[in-house]
Amino acid sequence: MEPRIIAFDIGDRRIGIAITDPFNSYAMPLETYFRTGDLRADAAALAAAAEREGAGRIVCGLPLNADGTESVQTEKTRRFLSALREATALPVVTEDERYTTREARQDLVAMGVNARRDKRRKAVDSLAAAYILEGYLSKTKKENQDMSMKEERNDYEDDNNIVELTDEEGKTYRYEHVGTIEYKGEWYCFFTPEKEAVERGEDDEDEEEEVAIFHLVGDEDDETLETIEDEDLLDELFAEFLRQYDEEGEEDEEEE
To answer: CATH 3.30.420.140 spans which residues of the chain?
Structure first.
């Protein structure tokens, strides 16, 4: 299991603390730390709390204005974050904390919490820290899902870019499709040995051609690849492929 994640809602007088469950699935309010007025001492105390809870990462709420701009409180928090990073070797990241305190108060009211004012404040602080942590967990989960989907898409594209070509002797080679071009009204496909096969040393060492070029013939539902015997045509096709490739590269640079 990965180390748990701890979160701090940093205020001028109190700091709410929340922690994830052992599986980092959800956030739980933990406690409220009352500041001493000594910045370094407070940072050291939070670093000790993170170590005590077995955390592997610290998430701190970053207060911003409603429009996302920074405020005086943002600068205060950044100073505290600087001291905290000096007090611990754990990674310290920030999470937008706008509206978390207000939401925590509303939830306490909805739950019917009628404790004394000091207990309500402690509950609000730790619950706000839990909201900060929940926001971080949701964002991280979405990023991981997006990354996983991107990797699956890349794997799918890579797999569908590989073809197996069989020569006249019945020997099969795995090639990567690198492009298809139109030349003088006909279509031609270009292949190179599969990268993984080359790295494993499985490509034919006697093969002189680094690029295999085939004539694409037939209808869309019944296309076949035919070999090209004309050496002059092969040279022309290769030169045309390089020209079109260079043009596409220049267009991409212009767009960037």
So the answer is: 4-155
Q: Which two tokens stand for residue 12?
A: 């001028």
Task: Take residue 204 and report the two structure tokens written for it.
Answer: 């034919």
pLDDT classification of 236: cutoffs 50, 70, 90 = very high
Q: How far apart are CA 55 and CA 147, in angstroms?
A: 24
In the CATH scheme, what is the homologous superfamily, with its name and number, of domain 4-155?
YqgF/RNase H-like domain (3.30.420.140)
| pLDDT tens profile 111-131 | 444 444 545 455 788 888 998
What is the three-state SS of 90-130?
CCEEEEECCCHHHHHHHHHHHCCCCCCHHHHHHHHHHHHHH
CA-based Rg of the chain, rounded to a whole angstrom? Answer: 31
CB atoms within 10 A of CB 188: 23
pLDDT at 108 over 50: no
Full-model pTM: 0.54
As beta bridge partners, residue 14 has: 34
